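Late entry, written up from scratch paper. The run itself happened at the end of the previous shift, but nothing got recorded in the book at the time, so transcribing now.
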Amino acid sequence: MIIELLGSGGAIPIPRPLCNCNICKEARIKGVPYSRMGPSVFIHDINLLIDTPEDIVHQINRSNIEDIKYCIYSHWHPDHTMGRRVFEMNHNFRSYLPKDNSTKILIPEGVMPGFRERLGIWNHFEYFKQIGIIETIILSDNSEYKIDNAVIKPIRLKEEYVYGFLIESLSKRVLIIMDELIGWEVPKDLGKVDLAVLPAGVFEFNPITNVRNLPVDTPTLKLECTFLETLHIVDNLNADKIVLSHIEELDKLSYDDLIKVEEIYRKKGIDFKFAYDGMKLEI
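Output as recorded:
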């Protein structure tokens, strides 16, 4: 499998619009890997896109993606869904009698309530269905969806409106969780995975200096998994390779800082990589 991390950022891109901190200035000057767009993943072997952040069009344009046959959604949050207009690319605007392409949109059953209630997502998809450019498929819990030689299994997280995905293909197993790890525990029956892509979590403490990065009363700490909590999950995973993504602008860590963090933890016997935009992983 070839897995491309199209966007490695979090809820706010790096550089953050209107921000002139050193991290954002550096990202504007140097670009990737210092800059980060919203969270999205593409699996090339089966033409499967995971989530559509606002900047998904730009992510696709800088990749070599030529077709999106399938898209699966992890949850309704705007940084994962607001780029859904990308499916309008399926419409042939040049022809009087257009022959349109169509993308199959896979939606886990627990994601559906958020899609119906938030951001007009379901209404938008209903319009796309009417003009023939998408098809929606609801995936029940404990179900499997087969694409060629691959099987996708949705995994409901602790926050019940959010899902991760186990993808199995040709004896390889990949776990992809886009966001919202808080409170999640590794299922006892998950088994060994060749690759796990997880959100890094927010950095309550600077991982290099150990100085507190976020005040104790920051609301985010009640809503999001922290980096140290993510490492606890990593410790309980039986994974050959770990990649941490969904890196938040609020953490104020540059690409160079994150390389240092990798080195610090490698010396402690904890081996992982931080994602960057366009990172390709082949297993």
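The longest helix spans residues 255-267.
(Scratch paper discarded after transcription.)
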